[in-house]
Amino acid sequence: MTTASVSADGDPRRLLSDVRALTRQVRLDQRVTWLALLVLATVTLVGIPFDWYGMSVRCLPDGSCEFSRRGVLYYWPAALLLAYTTIAVCYVRAARARGLGSRVLPYAITGAVTTVVFTAAWVAAALYFPSHPLPQQPLPYWWLLLDRLLTPWSMIGIALLVLARLERNLALGLFTVGYLATVLLVLPMNDGWGPPHWGIRAGLAVPQLVTGVVLLLGAVGFAAARRRHR
């Protein structure tokens, strides 16, 4: 970004308007929102095979089944930490290329903290419930909502709210609210698990696929908006 001094002819109102316009331009130049969403979308979509093949399903002769989602713990903690590191580095490089500072560190810290919270919750669940029996009846709505909240893709949304606040990016804030609403409220809850093995895996992979596509579409939209701005 290049800057040039512009005379305000001693008019305080014009000077204030110029300062506000320059401040807004700096904020816009600091944003690499599309890249953050692209990285997070990639991490989410790549995680599907890890969860699919890392899930063990065991069905008994009486027709009852148990499953364990260890693939989530094998993939997501490292993947999220790598993703937030990548995003922070890209933000800093983009800002320095324009001669600007970057305030992305609180976002990276928030991402790391939410990753630790998610990992701790899943490790505790794995210790207390080594395998999860498939429920014979639909689970309570509050239980399903809590389960959704502690997923990696919900943690992504919480960290994105912090990024939107740091950037003072209303568009990203609205997108993130819609994203979290999709993850927590819009995606269908499991009213029954369907046939074992493939049905169980698909029932848990579909919400992850949808959230990954939403993030990817968000990346495309913010990239297009940035090109129009330029």
Write up what this structure looks like.
By secondary structure, the protein is mainly α. It has one domain. Helix content is 72%, strand content 5%. The chain has helices at residues 12-30, 33-53, 70-97, 105-128, 141-149, 152-167, 170-186, 198-229, and strands spanning 55-59, 65-69, 132-133. The longest helix has 32 residues, at 198-229. The protein is elongated, with a radius of gyration of 22 Å. The chain crosses the membrane at residues 32-53, 73-92, 104-129, 141-163, 170-190, 202-225. Keywords: Membrane, Transmembrane, Transmembrane helix. This is DUF998 domain-containing protein.
Question: In summary, what is this structure?
Answer:
The chain has a 3-stranded antiparallel sheet.
Topology pattern, helix = H, strand = E: HHEEHHEHHHH
Radius of gyration: 22 Å
Instruction: List the domain count as a whole number.
Output: 1
Q: What would the principal axes of the Cα set say about the shape?
A: elongated
| Uncertain stretches of 5 or more adjacent residues | 1-8, 18-23, 25-29
Structural topology:
Blueprint: H1 12-30, H2 33-53, E1 55-59, E2 65-69, H3 70-97, H4 105-128, E3 132-133, H5 141-149, H6 152-167, H7 170-186, H8 198-229
Antiparallel strand pairs: 1-2, 2-3
Helix pairs in contact: 2-3, 2-8, 3-4, 4-6, 6-7, 7-8
Protein name: DUF998 domain-containing protein
Keywords: Membrane, Transmembrane, Transmembrane helix
Transmembrane segments: 32-53, 73-92, 104-129, 141-163, 170-190, 202-225
